[in-house]
Amino acid sequence: MKVGIIGCGAIANIITTSIVPENNGIEIAYFFDKDIERAENLASFAGGVAALDFDEMVDNVDLVLECASPDSVKHFAPKILKKGRDMIVMSIGAFMDMDFYHEVEQIAKQNNAKIHLPSGAIVGLDGIKAVAKFGLKEVSLITRKSPKSLGKDIDDVEVLFEGKASEAVKEFPLNINVAATISIACQRDIDVKIIVDPNVDRNVHEITAKGDFGEFKTTTMNYPCAANPKTSMLAALSAIRLLKSFNETISVGM
Ligand SMILES: NC(=O)c1ccc[n+]([C@@H]2O[C@H](COP(=O)([O-])OP(=O)(O)OC[C@H]3O[C@@H](n4cnc5c(N)ncnc54)[C@H](O)[C@@H]3O)[C@@H](O)[C@H]2O)c1
Known about the structure:
Dihydrodipicolinate Reductase, domain 2; 9 helices
């Protein structure tokens, strides 16, 4: 499988440096970034191409992995899907715009393409998907991050946001992909609280789900990526797992 990457930052670096040395049938062949130097650095590590021409990249790969920004998803996804190429999207907040969601879903269907949204920086999405249509009554997310990772300079614990995921994504587009992922998985606008906490050095996500099935709670305490404190290591690892799953015969925990 040939892959092209949009966005050669923290997530792309972790994915590329993990996948390339394994030589396991996943060839990351093209790298695209608005900062060409970043694309060149990763291309040189992977023995791939730093793409100057976006269309040329899409024409020459089976799948495009987006790890750039929500705006890049809105700009590039329709073009990629119209060419019948599959996508993995990391900037999942883009899909909280329901008009966009339905537009790209339609384009993907018409062109026999698939859009994959990895579980990202949380655990528990398998359970949420399983119970979504079976009496799920309540889903909530509490995200707790350090001032650094939220770009704040404060000394006390503060609730930055309390409301619906669709609103959280507008206010914190680069920080709250997790809320978007859960909302899309259970097809509802979940309750979100974002807390900035000077006492934590991890990105902490607590999910609670209640319904006819019973109840579960998960807590994920993520180490941030060194290259980008907003981003959790686990987010990149979940994309690596997803990429590898395409070549597997037996799937578990999907
Ligand atoms: N799904 C999840 O759980 C999850 C978790 C963490 C981050 N993310 C999202 O993944 C994305 C990447 O995260 P990261 O930590 O690697 O970010 P990063 O800032 O380290 O890297 C992003 C790269 O994309 C490039 N870029 C941005 N917009 C572009 C565009 N329009 N065209 C070309 N290149 C562009 C930047 O130049 C940069 O090199 C972000 O949108 C982030 O919010 C998702």
